[in-house]
Amino acid sequence: MTNFQYVLELLGTFFFAISGALAIQDHHDDLFGAGFTGFVTAIGGGTLRDIMLGSYPLVWIGDINFLYSIFAGVLTAYFFYTVLVRLKRTFLFFDTLGISFFTILGVEKALSLGVNPEIAAIMGMFTAIMGGVIRDVLTNETPVLFRKEIYATACLSGAVLYLILHAIDVGRDINLVISIVVIFVFRLMAVKYKLALPNFRKPISK
Amino acid sequence: MTNFQYVLELLGTFFFAISGALAIQDHHDDLFGAGFTGFVTAIGGGTLRDIMLGSYPLVWIGDINFLYSIFAGVLTAYFFYTVLVRLKRTFLFFDTLGISFFTILGVEKALSLGVNPEIAAIMGMFTAIMGGVIRDVLTNETPVLFRKEIYATACLSGAVLYLILHAIDVGRDINLVISIVVIFVFRLMAVKYKLALPNFRKPISK
Amino acid sequence: MTNFQYVLELLGTFFFAISGALAIQDHHDDLFGAGFTGFVTAIGGGTLRDIMLGSYPLVWIGDINFLYSIFAGVLTAYFFYTVLVRLKRTFLFFDTLGISFFTILGVEKALSLGVNPEIAAIMGMFTAIMGGVIRDVLTNETPVLFRKEIYATACLSGAVLYLILHAIDVGRDINLVISIVVIFVFRLMAVKYKLALPNFRKPISK
Question: Is pTM, for the whole model, over 0.90?
């Protein structure tokens, strides 16, 4: 399992780097800007998690292969730009795969460092979404988090599911697969059927 | 005193979470977004302080009660939304109480970790304001810090006052009360009388 | 060399604080806001680097002289405002000197903590630019990083050059001078001749 998981981590990093590089939208973009957003998207969530948990060295600092995955992702985005922006559906697929896997990976890492399950759920969600949030803040976009779609909520739900199954002693491998699939399907369904959470603000009666 | 202080910390967290949840202003808000801004507002300042000082575990990671306070605050904001937005004056009261207490708490924590008084003053101010600053950055608002009112300045002044009284051996409890009251009154007076610092930019003579 | 380097660090901090304070552009600025942006610009890059590398205490927390340099920089910006904004060319000079030196300083610090050269190059660039990036995010500017000029790219190039010369055993002092001069000249040439990297997005053929 461990080798398989390591490959998935590198692949997830690669896909996040592609997604980040493609997020360069305005006309002042250049190769460096795209590389930077790719980098930030790929490492932001895990970096914030590890800094909050005081877990050193950061994953991408301790293992240079993550940097190579990002480099490969940005170059892929550059050379296959026209293909990739046309394949929006393909891209949603990879991005959703990325957040699904990183959520559960983040939960497991937090648990392994001995925190409460509630904290682990938050850390799982952070691992998946904060790279994109930091990218959006840097490029002056409204963070993906505040857009009218189920995104972080799917991650948080999957993290809570993993923790419940973990608490009732479901085996790790089965739990991993179930939780990842649930996040993946929940997010895709939400996009397809335009599911959304209820508004926070209620109309104020006069 | 310690139990009293702990209750105040949890209450301050609760009020900051309410304030953060209510900050969701645009039309794309939902329950998750409000929860997230509430969370960030409540933990942002203390988290940044502790990461800068290398003090682990972070307060809300080491003690789950802070998370429950935030949860309670967000739910309170949700269920009493119409009441709370009408009670703007009440709200200013709680927010000001929050920054007053968190400033001095932050100063004391920094001092206990052995930093210089100047650094402790900055850390106190950061504890009080950086949660709101991070929230404003995430929601694309101009950070509260740069608005034309005395806000961070009141915190910094109170922090410096605490450190001066500390240096001349005023007892901790008395010092705590004096400094908190000074921040509180300074801030409320500033809002009431529209006090402001001098502009930085001067008109350039032609 | 060490004393000379220390003086340069304090001077670089001083110039970055001036540059940050002058970045207050909108009409809601005040002395506190300018002080805050000066502070963030001066310490942001090194702080992010040290937090990512887990290197404590942060430079400006461990040595109070850095805070005094920032204070002096902000006051200088305040009292000589009209002169400084007129001397735009002078200012580019100091800012460029700042990023040149901080890049190499960041590379050396990262190497001394035992990271890979690739990571050290990134950390060098971060040391130089992230203070300005954080400042731009806080003031709702498009980060300097994404503007159409060679800026971060010059830092990264200089960092890579330093690491290559380091690998082929060029002496430290000579390497330091060469790399700093290369960043400095590259950046100034880029501004003068409006050099830019190729766009990331390519026109999509219909």
Answer: yes
